[in-house]
């Protein structure tokens, strides 16, 4: 499976250099082929080969009366019941989510990017493994969130709301995506100052373990937040928390991208219209990462992952920062290759033993 992932990524990367020479029909065929390959890889992976698969197996075979079943999203319970009725196993569940998530992502990239193969290369370098092979429920929600961003920028806010609400059926955290309605496509100077300050203030909050939940009244969820805090203090969530921020090169790369996108905003936004909203959504992701981490590492990291799907758009937009385009593609693909290798080491190293 490692070989399949490597071949998939580098084939897409290679084709991204010549995609302007390809006809629309040829690119559509390639997109379908890549999509089928991504579904096949995600659907056939073995339990224990990637993070979260063991947890999903336990959830899949959990008894109906278990509390965990009652707390799961309605779509997950529906799929589990349907697959059980068909006498199908855990890989059928992986296939189900891949069949939903991957076409949603790929069609969004096709609509939003003039360089869809390059955007797909960016997605394959990290987010495919993170969402479609690890956080599979959030994977569907993040794909729907991409469509929400598309509709929001196009001025179709009803469809934006619909996409976010549909996302909550797959992962409750998708409800946080409603924050998009607070934003517009303008970035005045005072907003840039706020955006610039989020990361340094957040890093101080992260390392001082500043807990913002202490200011939340019990009637507004303070009691539930207290339970998150207790799990964190007991170290019961460490195994699910993912990489620590200080050693996570992927987040540091996104921080560099974030600052560069703000600095060159006026230039980039004229060439890629999703730039402004993507910057603001990435800022929301950083807020969760830095300010919620002391309460719950899992919650902070997972919500950052959800909002960081906007960074796929920022990486795509960054291609327009350099001329000629071939130079931009080389820079983008070198960064994607580094991100892919880092992701493989972090998420897929266990596949080497398969």
Q: Would you kindly provide a written description of the structure presented here, covering whatever features stand out?
A:
- The longest helix has 23 residues, at 90-112.
- This protein has 18 helices and no strands.
- 42% of the residues are buried.
- Helix 1 runs antiparallel to helix 18, helix 7 (116-125) packs parallel to helix 18 (325-347) and helix 15 (275-291) packs antiparallel against helix 16 (297-307).
- It has helices at 2-16, 24-44, 53-60, 67-71, 74-85, 90-112, 116-125, 127-132, 136-153, 157-168, 189-208, 222-233, 249-263, 265-271, 275-291, 297-307, 310-317, 325-347.
- It is an all-alpha fold.
- 69% of the residues lie in helices and 0% in strands.
A few lines on this structure:
With about 350 residues, this protein is mainly α.
Write the SSE topology.
Elements: H1 2-16, H2 24-44, H3 53-60, H4 67-71, H5 74-85, H6 90-112, H7 116-125, H8 127-132, H9 136-153, H10 157-168, H11 189-208, H12 222-233, H13 249-263, H14 265-271, H15 275-291, H16 297-307, H17 310-317, H18 325-347
Helix pairs in contact: 1-2, 1-7, 1-18, 2-6, 6-9, 7-17, 7-18, 9-10, 11-15, 15-16, 15-17
- Please trace the helix and strand order, writing H or E for each element: HHHHHHHHHHHHHHHHHH
- Uncertain residue segments: 349-354
Helix content: 55-70%
Shape: globular
The largest sheet is: none
> Cα distance, first to last residue?
8 Å
Structural class from helices and strands?
Answer: mainly alpha
Q: Give the beta-strand count.
A: 0
What is the number of helices? 18
Strand content: under 5%
Mean pLDDT reading:
85
Radius of gyration: 20 Å
